[in-house]
Amino acid sequence: MQAFLASIGYEHWILHVLLALPMAALPLVLLLPVRFARWIALTVALTEMILGLGLWWAFDASNPALQFVTDVPWLEQFGIGYRVGVDGLSVMMVLLSVVMMPLVVWGSWKGIDTKQRGFYALLLALKTGMLGVFLALDMFLFYMFWELLLIPMYFTIGIWGSSNRLYAATKFVIYTFVGSLLMLVAILWMVKIVGDATGTYSFAYTHLLANSQALAPYGSWLFVAFALAFAVKVPIFPFHTWLPDAHTEAPTAGSVDLAVILLKMGTYGFLRFAIPFFPAFALSDAVGLTMATLAVVGIIYAALVAMVQPDLKRLVAYSSVSHLGFVILGIWGSTVESVQGAIMVMISHGISTGALFFIIGMLYERRHTRKIADYGGLARVAPLMATAFVITAFSSIGLPGLNGFVGEFLVLIGSFGRYPILVVCATTAVVFSAAYLLWATQRVFFNRFTNPKNEGIGDLSGREIAVLAPLIAAMIWIGLYPGPILRRTEASARQYVEMVESYLPPAEPIIANRTGGQP
Amino acid sequence: MDVVQIVFWCFAGWAILSALLCVTRANPISSALWLVSTMFSLAGIFILLHAEFIAAIQVLVYAGAVMVLFLFVIMLLNLEETPRDWNRWMFWLAGAGLSILLAAQLVALRGYSPQRLANEFSSMPSPDPGLVFPEGAVARQAVEARGVVGALAEPLFQGYLIPFEITSILLLAAVIGAVVLSKKRL
Amino acid sequence: MLLGPSLAVSAILFAIGVAGVLIRRNAIVVFMCVELMLNAVNLTFVALSEVHGMGGQIMVFFVMTVAAAEAAVGLAIILAIFRHTQSVDLKSLNLLKG
Amino acid sequence: MARFAWLTILLPLLGALANGFLAARRPSAKRLVSLIGPGVLLAAFAVAIGAAIEVAGTEEAIRIQLWTWMPVTERLHIDLALQLDRLSVVLLLVVTGVGSLIHLFSIGYMRSDPGYARYFAYLNLFVAFMLILVLGASLPVSFIGWEGVGLCSYLLIGFWFEVDANSDAGKKAFLANRIGDFGVLVAMFLIWWTLGTLDYAGIDATAAATLPLGGTLATVIALLLFLGCTGKSAQIPLFVWLPDAMAGPTPVSALIHAATMVTAGVFLVVRTGVLFSLAPFAMEIVAITGALTAFFAATIGLRQYDIKKVLAYSTVSQLGYMFLAVGSGAWTAGIFHLVTHAFFKALLFLGAGSVIHAMHHAHHAVGAHDDAQDMRNMGGLRTAMPWTFRLMMIATLAIAGVPGLSGFFSKDEILASAFARGDHSTVYLVAWGLGVAAALMTAYYMARLMAMTFYGTFRGGGEVEGHLHEAPAVMTGPLVVLGGLSLVGGLLNLPAVVGGGQWLEHWLEPVLAPANLLLDPLHLPHGTTEYLLLGGAILIAVVGLTLGFRMTLGRPIPLPADTPAPRGLARLLEGKYFVDEFYQRVIVGPLVWFSKTVLWRGFDQFVIDRIAVAGSARLAQGLGWLGSRLQTGQVALYVSLFAVGAVLVLRALIGG
To answer: For domain B1-81, which architecture applies?
Structure first.
């Protein structure tokens, strides 16, 4: 496979095609009659997937450095260039978003009936933005894609959302925007500092990273700015209130995209930008402890609050906040296991929450309500959907053998050395997540069939099965055989940890001769 | 204090007095007329300052045409006296205070001799201060060289021709504006 | 040399004009005060042109044309307002309130 | 053959998938399902026997590497590997053996149930997960099985999900297990960070060298593991879910809540015996909790009227015995009782199942609606169901500890080892005392159960009695086999005093060697004390049984409708010490209230949404309003502002 890809010079054009294709199809969707909108979006998404999957083989797992790097000067006088590349941290996220694209388009096949052209055009723009964020190696380009995402997301929630959508959409945009403005200031200031120190003013990530020690004196302010922007996106505990609203009001496609990709931009940002640029400050004891505590508080708080949610989507939204708390804990756990675990949680959360949202979307398409109370005993009427929901719920709870467990286990076991008490508290979330998801599953699927309106809902249609089947297959595959994914992210994770380790006091071994224990 | 100074101060006193009265009269007609008298006094001063043509224009155009227009409008609207039509005390106070302040500052300009203006200018990186502020009583030599009207006409139609044309457009626009505004039905 | 004193006179006239505009409520009188301010400026121009060349006087010439145009249009506006509100009292004209 | 041990897992898994597919597509294909379900189990049993024969030959464990599960770093490199050694083979045989018998029984029991295929899919899936747990070579792999069985018990308890009580019971079971799993997870992290490995072999090798004997670390790890076991094996703090788990079909109770899943806790303790033996304090905790659970569960069992509830509390009590055994260092006694208990308790449950089945049919035929599981509606069934009666009587004698039967030997050995361990610390003596009392009560309530069900006259009304008849052959067959095993079970580990070869002791010797090395040897009582103990045990069994029969048959047994409301101690026992209500009011209630009002309404919506978000919006509006106050429409105001500006500019220009 590698040979074939190398023969067609795959690594030269793939990243550009991935970025350009949706944008190229955008005008097509807008101009052609409505009937074709869905089909164009689907074909584009499918081609993106087929091309994108090549990355799985073409990406050389053993070399931690950035690959497929292209560096084309763009706004020369400001030192801005079209710099794109991918490495262990981002390759899996690119693959996840590429794979999710056709599913999202297919998932909202019936759900969206008004203004289809606008919807699919925005969806394509969203796709480019998503891929751009993970591929960009130029701070300006990164920021541009970061902001590019806001507009389509705002309109998707604002126009096709449900009852209280404008409030949710505006809140979402303002929350993210305020955060990212600080980041813009930080980027500009950073470029200036490095420019003064080295003479060349450039936005290139590699350039800034190479002489990031020049940033050390200003490290605290710059890190706080970056951290705020990413914290809002992750979302970390105090900044999370936009997520439940955005999720509840967004249409299925919107909330799936939001859950699967947009939330990961925050954590990816920490891993790629915030910590490597200002390691001294980011990894100091105080910051490390606060971030880890916020993460754990977020995990438990969101799990508890999810338990009492009357609305299904809001419940899953809070569960996302709880899962992403694990990622932040993993990042600050600063061991190879915890960072790998963090990346794994990012991927598996995408899959399981994506599937949950698809199912809730299907329920919403049938009954137009998200209130748990309106449902009851659906397992009798829709057994297939009930099975799918149970499998997804258990993967989201973190049942070993499914994908949720792998990530959570690695994060917890990896971070245990550095924050033992916090990890113990985080593990309690294992119980709470089981509580709220099972309680919801029971009240929706497994209790008395009281509400006559539920009589009419049919079981999963062929299309819906086609959307859910790959996700469930992925859950079981990653749950039992995460090897290939872990191998691909290992090199970069190891490189990141080596960089981090030099700034950290060694995680004090609990028993002196611990390392001798290997048989 | 030679004769010119005395005459100047008479005209100045006259101008200031009539200005004060123009502002304070309740009847708009009287205040308009006091304004005309201010203009005449100013024309006098212009002559002292060797700007005879300007003085003539002042009397002819300004006092003659503009003030007549004012009087005509006042008559048209037959405004009678409006006693106590002063703004609330707050604005009165603000007005008085500000004008005193403004006057104090502008009077301070008195100390400005051409020399001070020149070297202040020269400190700024302008092309050539000499060109901007030629020395001595230039106005008088020009009048002697080219006569009262020529001294003004020559630079007007050579150096400032374009602005001159623009003012014609400006006047045209004003005329059209006035017509449009005042006609009830176009 | 009359530069100093004439500048002083023009300053006083200008100040009186400003005071007039602030104090009076009658639109026409306010207008006249504006004309007075313009005359004060003319005086300054002429005073300086005596020392520095004809530029000043030409400026006076332009100021006059502008004043004339402004008077014409201003009065037309006042006429239109008068026809509308039967009064020229500036206090009543506050449609553009915030 | 041992190399194919993974077949034992794959077969039930395939069975589960096939049945699942059938359940989704053609639920009515009952014949095919009843072929696949038990068939797959029997095949797995055959493979298990093959593997057992091969393992008998070697001392060390056979490790079967399937694939690398989590290749993260050199230190954390978890393989999905199975470990087949003497201990896991015993469990393997019990699970597959008893499992297939129960599958056969279920064919008859569940025949009329519409969810037939779905039931067998879940049952097969359960056996597959249980075998992963038993055969797992490392803690995480066993953890897959550990949580998998929790999942299947959730699905099976809540099988008839139409009834809210059942799905509630299922959820409660899973949450209780999950709380236990929290303990196992944290224990795993501690083990990995201290010993650097999670494989059982690795733990056995490095634990003694790394963890100081009796140190806090070893104790904490052991106690956390025990927390997991209490969750899974329903010991004192987390036993509340087992009685409610009776909401599931009876064969499920037999398989999961008697023979296999609940014993997983005991298996884990024995499997990580080294860690426990490094923490004597933890061993004491295990022993005393086991004894306390045995005692309290037995007391509750005295006053229950639902036949399955009595058996459920009896299971909790017997599990308490197993933990007492393991707590006092007698690993073999624990496993021995586990095996024998699997036989007679499964038999009791299946017997109860056939009774309930018969009662259902009778009620159905007549259209009566009394509770088919309430013993007060039964009575005198020995004539209508002779086979079930005889076999259940064997099991009752076995569990009561009548000499000669399997129960006597296993229970006696536990009490003996607890007594022997007594000279180390008095805790064990107290535990022994509780154990003896529990034994007495066990005999009593089993006798009471038999008396109320089979003796006396049928209290359920004449025409119902006419329809009562023995369960079909497919149900009584497994009963007979289990009856035989209960009879013969004792031979597995005949104590020396009776001339037995203690076969199981030697069989498990290689596996338990590392743990036993650390423990100071257990010198069992011999000579006069031993005979005294034996005599005492026999006396207890006999007294308990006679008392049970005499007391229940003596007084007339009221029907459920007119049973007087219990008072005093009886109310306490019948109400199960109100543990459930206590948990609800003290833990669950406040937690839900706290998260709803304080966290969600209070903090999330009020503090963040109202104050932070809406607050900043109002701030912006306020500033805007302030600005608008300036536009008063007064020309004079604008000019004065203009003038102020002019003055300032001039001031700057000239002043300088």
So the answer is: Up-down Bundle (1.20)
